[in-house]
């Protein structure tokens, strides 16, 4: 949460800087600008068929820390149940070498994306990128860990090494935790909860947890950043992947979800 606050401030500053420099025609245009925008700004584009009729999700991981196949299957059906894409949803899985320099700052996670992402939004196909990290977040302490972060409009990092570490005594929990983290971060790309302050149900945003849901049984309740001992216990006791409760679901439907 502390991190998310910093991140929000960063977005704010980035938007300010961008706003100040938008008249500067000397700035070379970024060919991947569509994938380099703040979190939540592509929510409707991911969910509805209005601007993009197809979706491609690139899953990038290293051989040391591969996601569980069952997590990927569960993630696919979660996406399928929400996005309205007549052109279909395509998945591309790619293996890259272990990335050096762990634990990673979010700037390093961005740099890994810049060096390794291969699919970008083009024409009527919107691209999403997920990196399963071979290193932990540098924000981790003895008392809290980060399992995943959605850090740009179409970018997610899943801290695979951390997920495997915290479930080593109970490996059956790994796919549940992993899929929960994946679905949860995808929920953030879809704009939950109230990321851009435009949800139809503003009342369910948790006053104690920025941009998360107040309902304890909802997928979007599980803040994956700075997970402390008490929350970690909740996570590791999950025996099924939490669903989106009705208010989060209706927020998505208001933006064009199925
Ligand atoms: Zn979250
Ligand atoms: Zn909810």
Account of the 3D structure:
This protein is of the alpha/beta class and 258 residues long. It has one domain (2-16, 32-254): Collagenase (Catalytic Domain), CATH 3.40.390.10. The protein has helices spanning 2-21, 43-47, 69-80, 106-116, 160-166, 174-189, 229-236, 246-254, and strands at 54-61, 89-95, 125-132, 144-145, 148-152, 155-158, 227-228. The strands form 2 sheets. The protein has a 5-stranded mixed β-sheet with strand order 2-1-3-6-5, sandwiched between helices. The longest helix has 20 residues, at 2-21. It is globular, with a radius of gyration of 17 Å. The two termini are 30 Å apart.
Radius of gyration: 17 Å
In CATH terms, what is the fold-level topology?
A: Collagenase (Catalytic Domain)
Overall structural class, as computed from helix and strand content, comes to alpha/beta
Largest beta sheet: what is the strand line-up?
Answer: 2-1-3-6-5
Order of helices and strands: HHEHEHEEEEHHEHH
Beta-strand content: 5-15%
Query: CATH superfamily membership, which one?
Result: Collagenase (Catalytic Domain)
Q: Low-confidence segments, ≥5 residues, pLDDT <50?
A: 1-26
Summed up, the domain count is 1
Taking the sheet with the most strands, its summary is: 5 strands, mixed
Global morphology:
globular
């Amino acid at each position: 949460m502390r991190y998310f606050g910093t991140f929000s401030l960063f977005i704010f500053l980035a938007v300010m800087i961008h706003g100040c420099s938008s008249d500067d025609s000397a700035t070379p245009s970024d060919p991947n600008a569509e994938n380099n925008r703040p979190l939540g700004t592509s929510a409707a584009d991911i969910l509805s068929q209005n601007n993009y009729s197809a979706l491609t999700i690139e899953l990038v991981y290293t051989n040391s820390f591969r996601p569980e196949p069952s997590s990927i299957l569960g993630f696919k059906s979660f996406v399928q149940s929400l996005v309205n894409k007549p052109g279909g949803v395509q998945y591309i899985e790619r293996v890259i070498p272990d990335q050096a320099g762990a634990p990673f700052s979010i700037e390093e996670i961005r740099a890994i994306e810049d060096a390794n992402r291969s699919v970008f939004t083009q024409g009527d196909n919107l691209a999403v990128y997920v990196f399963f990290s071979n290193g932990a977040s540098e924000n981790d302490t003895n008392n809290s860990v980060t399992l995943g972060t959605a850090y740009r409009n179409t970018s997610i990092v899943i801290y695979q090494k951390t997920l495997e570490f915290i479930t080593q005594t109970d490996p059956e929990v790994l796919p549940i935790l992993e899929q929960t983290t994946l679905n949860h971060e995808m929920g953030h790309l879809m704009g939950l909860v109230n990321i851009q302050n435009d949800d139809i149900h503003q009342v369910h945003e948790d006053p104690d947890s920025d941009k998360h849901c107040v309902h304890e049984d909802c997928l979007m309740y599980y803040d994956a950043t700075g997970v402390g001992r008490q929350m970690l216990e909740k996570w590791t006791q999950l025996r099924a992947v939490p669903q989106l409760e009705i208010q989060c679901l209706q927020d998505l439907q208001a933006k064009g979800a199925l």
